[in-house]
Amino acid sequence: MLSIRRINERLKEKEMTEYRLAKKINVSTGHMTKLMTGNIKDPRFELVCKIADALDITVDELRKKD
Predict the structure, then answer these.
(1) So which domain of life are we looking at (predicted)?
(2) Residue 21: helix, strand or coil by DSSP?
(3) Distance CA 20, CA 63 (A)
(4) Helix 4-13 crosses helix 18-25 at what angle (to 10 degrees)?
């Protein structure tokens, strides 16, 4: 599972919008909204890697810790 909180932190740190992230990782804004609102519980690993690369963090940093 993804840590939406961590994605939001990095977006703020990088002064990047969800829209810009969506364009950078080549997904629709609708898909990004579903991801960020938790409607997509288990995104593909490829997508997680793209998000991590775009935000300059590791995949492990994006994992939601139990």
Answers:
(1) Bacteria
(2) helix
(3) 21
(4) 100
pLDDT, tens digit only, all 66 positions of the chain: 789 999 999 999 999 999 999 999 999 999 999 999 999 988 999 999 999 999 999 999 998 775
Residues 18, 32 contacting (CB under 8 angstroms): yes
Q: Is the dihedral of CA 24, 30, 36, 40 positive or negative?
A: negative
pTM of the entire predicted model: 0.91
Exposed/middle/buried for residue 63 (C-beta within 10 Å: 0-12, 13-18, 19+): middle
- 46 Cβ contact list (under 8 Å, min separation 6): none
Amino acid present at 63: R
